[in-house]
Amino acid sequence: MSKYETIVVGGGAMGLSVAYNLLRRGRNVHVLEGDYLNAGSTGRNLGVLKARNPYAVGNGNKDLVKLAKEGLKLNAGLSSETGINTFHKTSGCLILAKDEADYKQLKEYHTHFKKLGLDERELTPEEIHRKWSYMDPDSVIAGFYSPSEANAHPFGVVWAYVEAIRKMKCQVEKQNKVSKIEKTSDGFKITAEKGEYEAENVVVACAERSSELTEQLGYKIPLTPMRKEVLISEPIRPFFGPTLERLSTHFQVTQTMRGEIMGTIDWMEPGYDLVKSTSEFLEHFADELVPIIPVLRNLNIIRQWTGICDQTPDEKPAVGKLDDGLYVTCGYNDYGITMVPIVGRLLASTIINDETSPMLKPFDPLRFE
Length: 369
Prior knowledge:
This protein is of the alpha/beta class. The protein has nine helices and 18 strands. Helix 1 (about 15-25) runs parallel beside helix 6 (about 155-165), helix 1 (about 15-25) runs parallel beside helix 9 (about 335-355) and helix 2 (about 60-75) packs across helix 9. It is globular. The protein starts with a strand and ends in a 16-residue tail after the last helix.
């Protein structure tokens, strides 16, 4: 039976970040991924990096924003740190108001985010059109712009961590799903498809599946598997400025460095089915996008898929210590990619020092007990 100081269960960006940061501090780590890399939530999102987190306003949003601000900074340096290109681009993000209900909500958020020190400013339709002439000023009534928000390719983030981990002589075992974790006298026994393992510490980082493993040890984390359809177009000439969002419809659209247009809108019914795709999604996305950017009316879509993420009842992540040697990181809704570098660093510190980092205390996973 192979023995390690720490086993990380889950080879998405979050689990890899924890492993990477433990390895940098001289720890013995092994990663078990149940599927191929990027099969889960990391590989299915748009890679938009935002400090302006709209969740849990009035119930800990300032703690989310604090974490997201640090994550945004660390994402910017991840390529240099690891030597692998994450395709990070400080493109900015423009959140749109298309009606008075949108505008009222965004003005309230604007006041809140400014108090938290975020670099957001309100733009009129005319100002939006002057900065980005491809946008129709008649389609919006205002926009709230942050120039420091960014994009990264989720696959790039994963490969940056995987290559850095490999250079530190750690293995990421793929297609080796963990089915059972048991407490032992001196740590844990982990049963996976390809064998059994022992570890002093276990970090569960399986997104929406995390609670299935922690429940075996008596710790239930209420997670809802949230699904969202995503599309990508043929490559076209790069012309996009900021990522565009409309919070009320969960609309988001951006352009990759290769020129593809990527976007999403609406939430699907909660569930685990990742093969469903609908024509209604395409129609709703087009109805939202084309009035704002008319030049994209004939855009050819080449692929669409279903993304998945995990949501807790209070819309905040569950990250930290569950028991001696047992840790979890999950519940990041659709903003996890921003948090990846900072959470990995803080959770590694928590494990090594056996003391919860102050920035993680608001996200105590035991709060649901």
